[in-house]
């Protein structure tokens, strides 16, 4: 694996630990049990990720026809066990089967590949046609989806709080974008660089959904994980880029803690320094820039963010201000002193992140 500055041992999940912590403390075993098992499994995966970093991950050879810019997807079924990758159930070009989860995962991998290829001329997540592998039906009542540095893994949810994690295509795009970040800027997964890491995945996860649906910035809902919450939950999604802090307000989950501006920046030692919480600030900046520019968000705002992520100047320890300044420079380089630059400058000003 080639990354900027060396491989960062990152294990990235779509559901933040603070949400699972809240569920694990519930008296109802139907809520607490799956959450506790998910937290335990996630802890094991984090340990595995660190060990892999120490001893080295197996090299992944690109397929022979990688230069043809086609996806190379393989789907596996864990059959509610924990061994990865599981039993192969669908390969590239195979017809859809009866398992809707497998079919959704296959389509989501393809949608992610297509956005990066068509919008940014990127051949798979590493730019060199690396295969996209995913495992579904992981463990029992597993309340998460994750990228482990090598493949995607999806749980089925507990049916009480979370549904099948292949339902929202932006969840698939979010996790695979952690792979793009891994192969490019390799942002450290702690504090502000970790929040930027999470934000990049939310940004491109949302763009993948918008691209798939053919939506403009005005038509998009800017929600991350819409359709993932079970009917009993009072909420719309896991996060909102348009209105951070409003995705859910539930008697079990509590209230969405994401801030929209630096005025409400959360200082915490949990969740790797609040990477899933403070990501709301750069998320909101992207929404503001994309909304101001209108049209398809992946074309201008998305291009600027992509240029920064892959340009080689974004350091592993980058803070919000570092990233913001680079987006300003990227906007000027690609679009001169036009409305794109003004939209980016104003967006960062509105969320309280200085660009000079």
Quick gist of this model?
This protein is an alpha+beta fold and 356 residues long. The chain has ten helices and ten strands.
What does the radius of gyration come to?
A: 19 Å
Number of strands: 10
Provide the low-confidence segments as ranges. 1-7, 51-58
Number of helices: 10
Element-level helix/strand string: EHHEEHEEEHHEEEEHHHHH
Query: Main sheet?
Result: 6 strands, mixed
What fraction of the residues are assigned to beta strands by DSSP?
A: 5-15%
Give the N-terminus to C-terminus distance in angstroms: 35 Å
What structural class do you assign from the helix and strand content? alpha+beta
Overall geometric form? globular
- Overall mean pLDDT: 92
What is the helix content? 40-55%
How do the strands line up in the largest sheet? Answer: 1-5-6-4-2-3
Furnish the topology, listing elements before pairings:
Layout: E1 12-13, H1 17-24, H2 29-55, E2 73-77, E3 87-91, H3 100-120, E4 132-136, E5 145-147, E6 152-154, H4 169-183, H5 191-213, E7 223-224, E8 239-240, E9 249-250, E10 254-255, H6 271-274, H7 280-293, H8 301-310, H9 320-335, H10 339-351
Helix pairs in contact: 1-2, 3-4, 4-5, 5-7, 7-10, 8-9, 9-10
């Amino acid at each position: 694996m080639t990354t900027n500055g060396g491989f960062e041992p990152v294990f990235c999940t779509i559901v933040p630990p603070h949400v699972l912590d809240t569920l694990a403390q519930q008296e109802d075993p139907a809520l607490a049990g799956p959450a506790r098992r998910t937290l335990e499994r996630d802890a094991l995966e984090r340990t595995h990720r660190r060990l892999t970093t120490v001893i080295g991950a197996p090299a992944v050879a690109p397929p022979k026809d990688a230069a043809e810019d086609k996806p190379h997807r393989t789907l596996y079924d864990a059959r509610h066990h924990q061994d990865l990758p599981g039993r192969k159930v669908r390969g590239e070009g195979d017809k859809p089967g009866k398992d809707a989860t497998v079919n959704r995962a296959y389509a989501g991998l393809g949608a992610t590949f297509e956005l990066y290829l068509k919008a940014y001329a990127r051949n798979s997540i590493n730019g060199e046609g690396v295969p996209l592998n995913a495992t579904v039906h992981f463990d029992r009542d597993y309340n998460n989806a994750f990228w482990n540095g090598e493949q995607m893994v999806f749980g089925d949810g507990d049916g009480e709080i979370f549904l099948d994690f292949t339902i929202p295509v932006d969840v698939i795009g979010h996790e695979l974008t952690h792979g793009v970040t891994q192969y490019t800027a390799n942002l450290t997964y702690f504090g502000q660089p970790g929040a930027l890491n999470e934000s990049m995945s939310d940004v491109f996860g949302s763009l993948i959904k918008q691209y798939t649906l053919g939506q403009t910035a005005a038509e998009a809902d800017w929600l991350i994980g819409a359709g993932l919450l079970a009917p009993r939950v009072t909420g719309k999604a896991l996060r909102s880029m348009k209105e951070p802090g409003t995705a859910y307000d539930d008697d079990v989950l509590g209230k969405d803690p994401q801030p929209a501006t630096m005025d409400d920046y959360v200082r915490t030692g949990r969740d790797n320094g609040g990477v899933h919480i403070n990501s709301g600030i750069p998320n909101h900046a992207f929404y503001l820039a994309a909304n101001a520019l209108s049209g398809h968000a992946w074309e201008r705002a998305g291009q600027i963010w992509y240029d920064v992520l892959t340009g080689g100047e974004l350091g592993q320890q980058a803070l919000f201000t570092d990233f913001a300044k680079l987006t300003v420079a990227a906007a000027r380089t690609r679009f001169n002193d036009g409305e794109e630059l003004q939209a980016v400058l104003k967006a960062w000003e509105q969320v309280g992140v200085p660009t000079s």
